[in-house]
Structure formats: structure tokens, C-alpha cells
Amino acid sequence: MTFASLGLIEPLLRATEALGYQTPSPVQAEAIPAVLKGRDLMAAAQTGTGKTAGFALPLLQRLTQEGPQVASNSVRALVLVPTRELAEQVNESFRVYGQHLPLRNYAVYGGVSINPQMMKLRKGIDILVATPGRLLDLYRQNAVKFDQLQALVLDEADRMLDLGFARELDELFAALPKRRQTLLFSATFSDAIRQMARELLRNPLSIEVSPRNAAAKSVRQWLIPVDKKRKSELFVHLLGERNWGQVLVFAKTRKGVDQLVDELQAQGVSADAIHGDKPQPSRLRALQRFKDNEVQVLVATDVAARGLDIDDLPLVVNFDLPIVAEDYVHRIGRTGRAGATGEAVSLVCADEVQLLAAIEVLTRQTLQRREEPGFIPDHRVPQTDASGQVLKKPKKPKKPKEPQASAGKAAALGRWIDSEKPKVKAVRKAPGFGKAKKG
């Protein structure tokens, strides 16, 4: 099968050929013809399998062939994404795929000034990629209109709900025209997202090219048990001992990200950070430095788990396990992309055992454990498996008592029985107690 056989027009075929795309991935092979026919779509695919092209290529073709020119402050296709990084990545994909087409695309998100975005929207945008919060701000200020909207794409909608965008999404959906094409693409689908799909999509085609919530088979996964206070020390040790090159590291909190970066820099390791407190230019600069090999270690919170598109990234390290198990799939999906292989290593301490169990249930596999000499934890990580059970550590057997002489045993038994008898204190009777009262 080729991209030409899917019915794509020549300018798009030129773009895919220049990118080195030869054979459509499974999700592209199923999604592109359906989107070209105008079908609503609900597609589950592992991250890194090319799902962005699965909706971008056919939407570019439909917008080129159908409908009037975009009016001022209007959009013809809207792509909603959970994070700034993913907005930039998806917008860049539309730019590259549509470089030979007369269409305009743009991305809007928070963390930067809203005024340039309002100015850009005045000319009208064919494809707008947006995070829900900033899009709602623009809509409330009449900077964007949806009268000409033909298509809505929800990319990583489960993450948008995780980040608390449910109210913003409801308000945006109410503002959109009812007659539109709706496409739902994600690596994972929670039950809440399936309910959303039932409300928004009309007779959708359902595509699942991989098991639900599965991790990519191209990523080798394992964990190292370690005490929490020694995680930083272990990571620096592994960095040198294993001769790791570039590493993308995920930590749970913004404070944890900054602390790890400070410790790495103090050890002479080039490191940078991405998290929600960083201004967007700083985040983009850190990502670009990592892509340009100027930085060896990029440390991020889950804000970057979806949207970091890094070629040939060999290794992802979970410094902390994610609170939401689905985020594990997205984290490790940053490596092993587009047919390449990768590794995902998790540093796990005892109080993360429930998070580990949830991840193993979700991915339907028990992660292999490898203890690192010199870092065997004092607080052992209980055994887990893909059934979700946390297996308690076996208790140490009690030492048998030394045999004693029979008389000694009887005496000891007598003393034991006597010691167990409750001691009853003598109760002093009050005067007249028990005597019959005189009439």
C-alpha cells in the first residue's frame, strides 16, 4: 500500500515523499480514507505510530477541495490539544504536510501574550491548533468565530480531562456548529472519553490498531528498586556507568524537576528543564537545545509527556512514577518511535508500589526488576504483577524454642497460665452492704 493508493492529492504526496514516508502506518491506512469520506472517527493508536498524519493529511485535502475561503477571525478546522508542546508539534506537522497548499495554519496557547494571537486571527485561519483555555479566552473576546467550522479534532482528549479542562471543553462544544466532522484521536481512551465520544460523534468509525492502553512493543521496559533518598545518586551513577547519551527524564513535580537539574549541573552534567512554571519561550528553548545535542539530560513533568517529538531518542527514565497510569504509556512513547527501538527505565521506591501496580495492570505486563549493586534499597519494594495485586513480603520464620526438661516445661507452663490469669482485687464492702433494710 502507498499514500497514493489512499487517494491523496499530488501536493500532499510530494510532501510525504520529501519526508521519506513510504508506506502508511496501520492507523494512517484506516483513518485517511475514512476522513476523506467525511466520516466521524474514533481512533486509538500508540503514540509514535503516525496518528497526526492520519488526520492532518486528509483534512488538508478536504479544506483545499471544499468550502469557501476563510473569513476574517474565522477558522475552518479546529484541533484541540492538552499542552503547548503538543500544539506546536501538531501545528508544525500541518505546516510541513501542507507546504504546497494555499492554506494557513496557526497555533494558540497560554503562557504567551494573547495580543499577537488576536492580530493573527484577524486574517482568518484555515487550521487552528489550540489548547482549550487560551481558545476560550479568544472566543470570549470575539477574536475567533466558528461559523465556518467544518471539522473538529480532539487530540489526546483524555489528557485534557486529566488536566481539568472539562468545563472549558463543554463551553467550547456548545459554541461549535452541530453540523461538522468530528475526529477523536488518542493513544489511550478512558471511560470518560468514550462517553464524550458518544455525545459528540455521529455514527463514528472506530479504529483500534493496538490493544487499549498498550505500550509500544518497540520499547524495552524495566525498573530498578531504590530508596527514595538515593534516586538522584542512582541516576548520576547510571548516567556514567552505563554510558548513557541523551536522556529524557520525567519527574512528578516542578520542584522535583528543578532539584534534579540543579544536582546534575552541580555534578557537571548538562541539563535543562521543562515544566508548567517555565515561560513558553524558555520551554521551547530547552527543547531545542536538547534536540541540538547541546544538553544531555532534559528533565520534565508530565506537561511534556505528550507533544515532545524528538528523533532517535534512545532512552526515557521515569525518575518518579506518574500518578495517572496512562501517563506512563505517553512518557515511554517518546522513545521507540517510527519503528525505532528504545528503552524505558523506572526508578521505583517502596511508597510507589501502588502506582507501579496500576501501570502493570494498564499495560498488562509485569515490569522486569533489576537491582543495581550498591543501591539495594533498605525499604524493599513489594512484588507486584499485572493482576494488580501487591504481594506482601514473606515474614521471617520464628525460631523454634529450645527443648526443656519435662518438669521444667510443666513449671514454665504453670507460670505462663498463672501469668495470664486476671488479677482480681479484693472489693471492700460498704457498711450495711448486703443487710436487709429495716421497714
Q: Characteristics of this structure?
A:
439 residues, alpha/beta, 7-stranded parallel beta sheet, 37% helix, 16% strand, globular, disordered C terminus
Terminal residue distance: 114 Å
Helix content: 25-40%
- Tally of alpha and pi helices: 15
**Strand order in space, largest sheet:** 3-4-2-5-6-1-7
Strand composition percent? 15-25%
Shape: globular
How large, in whole angstroms, is the Cα Rg?
Answer: 30 Å
What structural class do you assign from the helix and strand content? alpha/beta
How many β-strand stretches? 16
Compute the average pLDDT: 83
Query: pLDDT below 50 for ≥5 consecutive residues: which ranges?
Result: 403-439
List the helices and strands and how they pair.
Layout (H helix, E strand, L loop, with lengths): L9 H9 L7 H11 L4 E4 L6 H15 L9 E6 L3 H14 L7 E4 L6 H7 L3 E6 L1 H9 L10 E5 L1 H6 L3 H10 L5 E6 L4 H10 L4 E4 L10 E7 L5 H11 L5 E4 L3 H13 L4 E4 L5 H12 L5 E4 L14 E4 L6 H8 L9 E7 L4 H11 L4 E2 L13 E2 L5 E2 L14 H15 L19
Parallel strand pairs: 1-6, 1-7, 2-4, 2-5, 3-4, 5-6, 8-13, 8-14, 9-11, 9-12, 10-11, 12-13
Antiparallel strand pairs: 15-16
Helix pairs in contact: 2-3, 3-4, 6-8, 13-14
